[in-house]
Structure formats: C-alpha cells, structure tokens
Amino acid sequence: MTRVPDSRVLVLLRHGESQGNARNVFTGWMDLGLTPKGENEAHAVGRNFRQEGLSFRHVFVSALGRTMETARLLASELERVPDDFYVSAALNERDYGQLAGLNKDEARQRWGDEQVRVWRRSYATAPPSGESLRDVVARVVPYYLRSILPLVLRGQETLVVSHGNVLRALTMAIEGYGPNEIETVEYAPAEAVVYRLHADATIGGEERVAPPVIDGANR
C-alpha cells in the first residue's frame, strides 16, 4: 500500500470472513459472527494500517456483529485508538429476504444460475421479500452524506467497516458509478479501499488493498 496523506482520508473495509461466508450462504441481516480466519484477517488489516501510518479519528460500523468485531480487532493493532465508534443500521448489509440462510449453490439449483446472478449483482432487482442494491443505496448514501463525509472533509481520518453491498453503494456515491457499472464491482472479505478526497469531495487518490493472506490452518 502506498502511503496516503493524512488529510481527508476515507477507508472502506469489508468485514473479515464470517460464518455465513464460510458456509457459502446468503447472510444479509442474519447476525453471524466471524470465523477464526476472519478474526485473523481483522488483526492483519490493523497491522497493515499501522505499518502504513494510517490511524483513524472515527470508525463507522453496521449494527451487525461481524462489522463490530472486525473494527474492534483491527483497532487493537493500531498505534492510536480511534476517538469515536458509531453504530448504524443504515450500514447493514442488504436484506436478502427469502434467500437469507440459503446456501448459494442450493439457491442456484432452485431458481437457476441467471436468476440468482441477477438478484446478487443487478442494481434494481430484489430477491423475494428482500432489498435490491437500489434500496441499499437509498438508505446508505444519505447517511454517508449526512454523517460520514462531513468528518472526512474536515480532515478527520475515517474508517467505515461494513458489508459488500453497502460498500458497492458507497462506491456509487464516491466514484459516480452507474447501475450497469456497479454490477462488476465486488469486495472480498477484509478487502479495503483507501480514498484521499479533495475539498470538493472528488477523488484525489485511491488504492484498492487486497485482503491479507491467512493460512488456512488458522480458520
């Protein structure tokens, strides 16, 4: 990771591997914790941030435990403890409705590969009784503009630990992606993006940070 100047820094991070990730199920609002591998990923991300000189005044997490635990573990590795932690359901993963708890391979067998792909990747199509990415954008982006972005623009380094679809929604807001472009964007567990913003909230620098490599024996 290239050293990022301390002013107007925003880091987006997906939580470490969860029990739902390990079981290959649609997790959504199910409050499943981290696996041992996910815990190790969180520690490793924190050490990486420390080595790169990154510290945070503010940390935002969803109301689901896997983001809180990721944030707590990585913060324990930082040189300076963050000043504030904010918890908001606005940053919760999308609601997968009837898909929640189902194995993804089983869902493909039931509804077909293409239908499941549309539910997972498209912008406007929601799974049965669940949320589309458009629905997630509708609750995430106003919260970002109201509560997160003003802190970043004041030069207060900010970390958001959330979920894959929430980070896709934030990517649309920050990078100006359209509904078709966002279909190809995804975040692996413990993957991060470091942004340096100009005073007008446009991007001055950006770096995608791959998840740390964790020995499978640590799972």
TrEMBL record:
According to UniProt, the reaction catalysed is: (2R)-2-phosphoglycerate = (2R)-3-phosphoglycerate
Q: What is its EC number?
A: 5.4.2.11
Positions of the record's site feature: Transition state stabilizer = H163
Q: Sorted alphabetically, which PROSITE patterns does this protein's record hold?
A: PG_MUTASE (PS00175)
CDD domains named among the record's database cross-references: HP_PGM_like
Active-site residues annotated for this sequence: H15 (tele-phosphohistidine intermediate), E93 (proton donor/acceptor)
Gene3D superfamilies documented for this protein: Phosphoglycerate mutase-like
Q: Which SUPFAM superfamilies is this protein grouped with?
A: Phosphoglycerate mutase-like
Q: Where does this protein hold substrate?
A: 14-21, 27-28, 66, 93-96, 104, 120-121, 164-165
Does the UniProt entry include the keyword rRNA processing?
no
Single Gene Ontology MF annotation? phosphoglycerate mutase activity
Presence of the UniProt keyword Isomerase in the record? yes
Domain of life of the organism encoding this protein: Bacteria
InterPro entries xrefs: His_Pase_superF_clade-1, His_PPase_superfam, PG/BPGM_mutase_AS, Phosphogly_mut1
The enzyme's first-digit EC class, named in words, is isomerase
Q: In which pathway does it act?
A: Carbohydrate degradation; glycolysis; pyruvate from D-glyceraldehyde 3-phosphate: step 3/5
Q: Which Pfam families match?
A: His_Phos_1 (PF00300)
Q: Which UniProt keywords apply?
A: Gluconeogenesis, Glycolysis, Isomerase
NCBIfam families registered for this protein in UniProt: pgm_1
Question: How is the quaternary structure described?
Answer: Homodimer.
- Into which family does the record put it? Belongs to the phosphoglycerate mutase family. BPG-dependent PGAM subfamily.
What job does this protein perform? Catalyzes the interconversion of 2-phosphoglycerate and 3-phosphoglycerate.
Q: What is this protein called?
A: 2,3-bisphosphoglycerate-dependent phosphoglycerate mutase
Which organism was this protein described from? Ollibium composti
What taxonomic classification does the UniProt entry list for its organism?
Answer: Bacteria, Pseudomonadati, Pseudomonadota, Alphaproteobacteria, Hyphomicrobiales
